[in-house]
Amino acid sequence: MGRVGKEEINRKLLHILAVGFPVFIFYGPGGFGFSRAQVVWILLGIFLFSIAVDFFRLYAKSFRSWFFKRFGYMMRKEEETQLTGATYITAGSLICSLISLTSETFAASAFLSLTLFILGDAAAALCGKAYGRIRVGEKTLEGTFGCFLVCALLTGLVFPHLPMFLSKWDGVFTWMHIIVFPLGIALLELFPIKIGGIKLNDNLYVPAAVSLLVLMR
Questions:
Q1: How does pLDDT run across 126-136, given as a tens digit for each residue?
Q2: Which helix (H) or strand (E) holds 199?
Q3: C-alpha dist (Å) from residue 11 to 78, 112, 121, 205, 217
Q4: CA 6 to CA 12: how far, in whole Å?
Q5: How far is the C-alpha of 156 from the C-alpha of 175, rounded, in Å?
Q6: Fewer Cβ atoms within 10 A, N terminus or C terminus of the chain?
Q7: Do the beta carbons of residue 147 and residue 210 sit within 8 Å?
């Protein structure tokens, strides 16, 4: 059994807090009195703030020193010279909020896929580091299974009972939904997409891609 470092645990705990984004996308218009367009504008503001923080972290020496002193222990090596995962998950949430403008069904799909990705990605990282033996590129099959299991349990046992979810979904979950959505998350997390040799950050495209699986209904 591997060992999960404190920094990875702290990183994933912070990652899990991002569940607030899909909750806001779905329940913001009804539960908090915002319109869907206002939700998009708010997430755009958060994204621009995150971009600004990364810009100053990368190019302002004094801010960079302050930032690394307080948050550097949670950052991965590659993030020292590029955007952080937090900025990418904010961008992915913004894309999902734009998808939610299409219809209530797409809003429910964006809520589902973004939540599954955030929690499934955390499960994949922790399971992969603790139990990972069979490697597939930079990931492990054990981590992928952990991701799929968490997503399947959430899809089958939690989401159908959330307030307003099935009414917005405009139907009921079938076994196809319980399998296809988690499987889509797990496989996209395992096999990152590359364009021109450049690996895309999965925080950016996985939730949006899986949201569009609603078209299969």
A1: 888 888 788 88
A2: strand 198-199
A3: 15, 22, 12, 20, 35
A4: 10
A5: 8
A6: N
A7: no
Report the alpha-carbon distance of residue 89 to residue 108 in Å, rounded: 18
Contact 170, 105 (CB under 8 A): yes
Sketch the domain layout of the chain as residue ranges: 6-216
d(CA 166, CA 26): 12
Instruction: Give me the half-sphere count of Cα atoms (radius 13 Å) on the Cβ side of residue 191.
Output: 3
pLDDT digits (tens, 9 = 90+) for 40-97: 999 999 999 999 999 999 999 899 899 888 877 777 777 778 888 889 999 999 999 9
Q: Hey, what are 95's tokens?
A: 């894309």
Overall size of the chain counted in residues: 217
Q: Is residue 132 helix, strand or coil?
A: coil
Residue whose pair of structure tokens reads 């809520």 in the numeric block: 111
Cα(15)–Cα(82) distance, integer angstroms: 18
